Amino acid sequence: MKAVVYIKYGPPEVLQIREVEIPTPKNNEILIRIYATAVNATDPIFRKGKPFISRFATGLLTPKNTIPGDVLAGEIEAVGKEVTLFKKGDQVFGATGGGFGAHAEYISLPEEGALALKPANMTYGEAASICDGALTALPFLRDQGKIQRGHKVLINGASGAVGSQGVQLAKYFGAEVTGVCSTANLDLVKSLGADSVIDYTREDFTRTGQSYDIIFDAVGKSSFSRCKRALKPNGIYLTTVLSLAIVRHRLWTSLIGSRKAMIMFTGIRPAKERAEDLRFIKDLAENGKISAVIEKQYLLEQIAEAHRHVETGHKKGNVVVTLDQISKM
Ligand SMILES: NC(=O)c1ccc[n+]([C@@H]2O[C@H](COP(=O)([O-])OP(=O)(O)OC[C@H]3O[C@@H](n4cnc5c(N)ncnc54)[C@H](OP(=O)(O)O)[C@@H]3O)[C@@H](O)[C@H]2O)c1
Question: Quick one: pLDDT at residue 324?
Answer without folding.
Answer: 66
